Backbone:
């Protein structure tokens, strides 16, 4: 249970990180270390080089810009948790982050680390999908921005070239007074979710839903938007019946079973948790129930 | 590969240490093996049990999930550094003694360091908040009842109220 020997690098600029990635054959980026350190200790990964990002400048911002929250890849989960800006302008992210690990892991863990680790049940990954986030990626040719929906290239595999790194994410804000909820089922508080559900709702003055986002995490290799449920919601007045019926489509998701829960149970959870998330989101509309 | 080493300067419990460490060494192993501070316990060594929790610049972190080189230039507090003087316990430690907050004591260092940070952020917590705060620390002896009672009692004492 000790990490194997490796060469340690602690560059101070993104350009230096990209340079190292281009030069080194078998390197791992170390962000908050809350996933990579156990993997090193258990020797699931055996890198020749570890590139520590903790001294890299310009990756720890958290600011509001052009209708979105821009958060640096090395922003600690703790700073997101305690940010008044996140609580008021992106409440879904606030609710989700309180369910990410524990105080001790959030004090070190970062946004970028979690997004790149891409655990299928990770809360921050589900939030990025739910909010149509975009991510900034820097490589030798400069910066590119892609929708987060295109970021998972496979099971726990980000769409990054070997010489690229994630530098930040942009979470578009929903209208003032929108409803939000992040609910999950986990065996113990702080565990990865078996299944999680995120819901966002906007409605017009007559009470008709004008915009909806329903996301399920934990069923497949990455969280998914349930477009069929979203379509069933938009244009209709919110009711318990509408939510129940819309969420039935979650049972059709592809699900994989594992030691924690069989596929059929995950589908059942997807339908139940998405309904609970919608009901909770609706009860919070207009700023109520905060 | 031969082990790579680096020189680091760390302040641990108020004392400055200069040391040569293997870059693959975790902070927990450095504290225990090189500084002889064995109060920081190692249970799972992969970030699940919380026994190795220490304070890094005042914030609780798992010392098994950090490299010692990453502590360079930072301030660490371990369980050895909690009490005000050698012959006196911290009010949190007293509350643990008085409320049966420990039995074998293996998880205790991690729980104490976690609660030092938590009670500083939240001096008047509810029982539910205490339970969430220690959710990242596993205890196999107490069933947590004594720990929760001790944390609430410590909060009262640290606020300067009468002991409960």
Residues:
């Amino acid at each position: 249970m000790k990490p194997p020997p490796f060469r340690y690098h602690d560059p101070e600029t993104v350009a230096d990180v990209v340079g190292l990635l281009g030069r080194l054959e078998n390197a791992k980026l170390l962000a908050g270390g809350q996933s990579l350190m156990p993997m090193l200790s258990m020797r699931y990964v055996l890198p020749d080089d570890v590139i520590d990002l903790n001294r890299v400048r310009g990756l720890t911002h958290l600011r509001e810009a052009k209708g979105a929250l821009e958060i640096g890849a090395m922003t600690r989960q703790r700073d997101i948790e305690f940010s008044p800006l996140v609580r008021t302008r992106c409440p879904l992210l606030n609710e989700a982050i309180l369910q990410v690990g524990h105080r001790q892991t959030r004090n070190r863990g970062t946004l970028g680390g979690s997004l790149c680790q891409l655990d299928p049940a990770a809360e921050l990954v589900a939030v990025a999908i739910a909010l149509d986030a975009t991510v900034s990626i820097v490589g030798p040719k400069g910066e590119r921005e892609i929708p987060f929906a295109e970021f998972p290239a496979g099971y726990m595999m980000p769409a990054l070239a070997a010489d690229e790194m994630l530098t930040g994410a942009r979470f578009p804000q929903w209208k003032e007074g929108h409803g939000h909820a992040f609910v999950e089922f986990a065996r113990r508080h702080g565990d990865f979710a078996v299944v999680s559900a995120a819901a966002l709702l906007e409605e017009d003055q007559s009470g008709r839903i004008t915009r909806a986002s329903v996301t399920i995490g934990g069923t497949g290799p990455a969280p998914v938007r349930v477009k069929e449920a979203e379509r069933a919601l938009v244009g209709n007045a919110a009711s318990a019946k509408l939510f129940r019926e819309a969420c039935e489509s979650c049972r059709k998701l592809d699900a994989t079973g594992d030691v924690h829960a069989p596929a059929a149970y995950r589908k059942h959870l997807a339908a139940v948790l998405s309904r609970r998330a919608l009901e909770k989101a609706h009860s919070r509309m207009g700023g109520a129930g905060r | 590969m031969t082990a790579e080493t680096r020189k680091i300067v760390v302040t641990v419990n108020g004392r400055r240490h200069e040391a040569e460490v293997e870059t693959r060494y975790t902070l927990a192993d450095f504290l225990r093996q090189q500084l002889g501070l064995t109060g920081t316990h190692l249970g799972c060594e992969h970030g699940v049990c919380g026994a190795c929790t220490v304070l890094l610049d005042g914030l609780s972190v798992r010392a098994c999930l950090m490299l010692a080189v990453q502590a360079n230039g930072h301030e660490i507090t371990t369980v050895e550094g909690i009490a005000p003087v050698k012959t006196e316990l911290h009010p949190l430690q007293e509350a643990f003694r008085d409320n049966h907050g420990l039995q074998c004591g293996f998880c205790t260092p991690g729980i104490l360091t976690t609660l030092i940070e938590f009670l500083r952020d939240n001096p008047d917590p509810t029982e539910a908040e205490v339970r969430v705060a220690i959710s990242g620390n596993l205890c196999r002896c107490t069933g947590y009842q004594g720990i929760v009672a001790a944390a609430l009692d410590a909060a009262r004492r640290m606020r300067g109220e009468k002991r409960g």
